[in-house]
Amino acid sequence: MNDNMNHSFQELERRRAVALQGGGEARIAAQHKKGKLTARERVDLLLDEGSFEEMGMLVTHRSHEFGLEKEVYPGDGVVTGSGTIMGRPVLVFSQDFTVFGGSLSEAHAEKICRLMDMAMRLGVPVIGLNDSGGARIQEGVVSLAGYADIFYRNVQASGVVPQISAIMGPCAGGAVYSPAMTDIIFMVENSSYMFVTGPNVVKTVTHEEISSENLGGASTHSTRSGVCHLSFPHELACLEGIRRQLFYLPQNCEEMAPIYPYSAPANNPLEWRPKLNELIPSSPNQPYDMLELMDEILDPETRFELQPDFAGNMITAFGLLGGRSIGIVANQPSSLAGVLDINASRKAARFVRLCDSFNIPLLVLVDVPGFLPGTDQEWNGIIVHGAKLLYAFSEATVPRITVITRKAYGGAYDVMNSKHIGADYNFAWPCAEIAVMGAKGAAEIIFKHEIQAAPDPNAKWDEKVALYTEHFTNPYQAAARGYVDEVIMPSETRRKLLSAFARTANKAVRHPRKKHGNIPL
Q1: What residue ranges of the chain have pLDDT lower than 70?
Q2: CA-CA distance, 169 to 94, in Å (whole number)?
Q3: SS3 340
Q4: What is the pTM of this model?
Q5: CB atoms within 10 A of CB 76
Q6: Is 173 a catalytic residue?
Q7: Given 23, 134, 146, 173, which residue is catalytic?
Q8: Any catalytic annotation for residue 500?
Q9: Active-site entry in 159, 411, 422, 441
């Protein structure tokens, strides 16, 4: 080997070593002191061991303003490349807080844009690990243009490939809009936050004193705003959460939902679930836990719930049914009686559209007394927010199967994937109550004058409640008209669902030709 060749090899190794050091040992130590991993450590833990192939390691910024020409770091604050998760190819970018605080420059943005363009060409998920102080101020409008370039690609990739964002540190200002347009957002407790304007600006404008954590931390976005789908106690758990989320998703919109090997248990080949016969309380006003019901229906230990701490009256989760990945939307009777309100409607609508984007069949478990009344709901737009869920179900072309376990009252019956808005199979348990409203309220309206004129109004009211219950508060009128395909025993629910999803696996729907619909936003 001649000296020139040897020198060129050494130069490559030197440049690689510099790139691997990020912002240097001192800044790496400061990152670790905060309890945070470095950008490269996160990538290594997220991906299958030894699978990462980096792209753009030697990219540098091109700015000469405010002394930036004296600080040049290969990679320019973001690690980008490809790898595998459970053997499936993915593309990933990981912002490096040790380099200019992970701030976004023109070159930084170009690396992310190239990655997203490649994700759409190859049809693979793209994962963003966000840890950035925002736009690089020294580059001015160029950095803002970089953000807009990323936003545009988020929209183009939406519904084409899964996009998952993990907030591993600060994410503020314009930077928050990229994660907001991705399919899933995960956060780390006590070390990550998201907000459009920070605590100092809030204090200046509104005179409110608030911390970054309370303004936009993982707890805030998991419980109050609903921006975050899941929060995790530490970064390792968050990265494992991303791996688990991908287990339920296909690679892109052209693939069907994953199907994994499954065999019925030898001691229960017909898949009976007798525990379901005893789950619904005898009193129609007594709550029960819909999660317990879901676990009896799904394959063991496969439920993966999103947004569990936001709008608890609505459950959105992934799971496996006979090895088939499905999405589940369910009312939760143990929280606000499972009523539909603004947050529950938004939460479910977004989830339905996610599942429909990636060919994931939907199971809808219904126990809903109606929409939540009140001035707060009306003045904040329950009409348009409830319509979002109605629109999402009506638009969805994936297999859609509904089971009414107990109450299905009023407009909420229509909205929760009824036959009338395109559900493929609708089942009801014998205890189901499908009516315009509850028997007591209905009797009071229908028989108002008769009850008032009776010698004993309370006794007459009870009589009319019993009459209305006998005629309407049951699943049989709906079954007689074909709105319910079959009234089934709870214990046979899993078997019926396995069969129904198998029969609808090749479902094909073609909407009328149009540019796109106008969802009520």
Answers
A1: 1-2, 66-67, 438-444, 447-449, 451-452, 457-466
A2: 11
A3: strand
A4: 0.94
A5: 27
A6: yes
A7: 173
A8: no
A9: 411
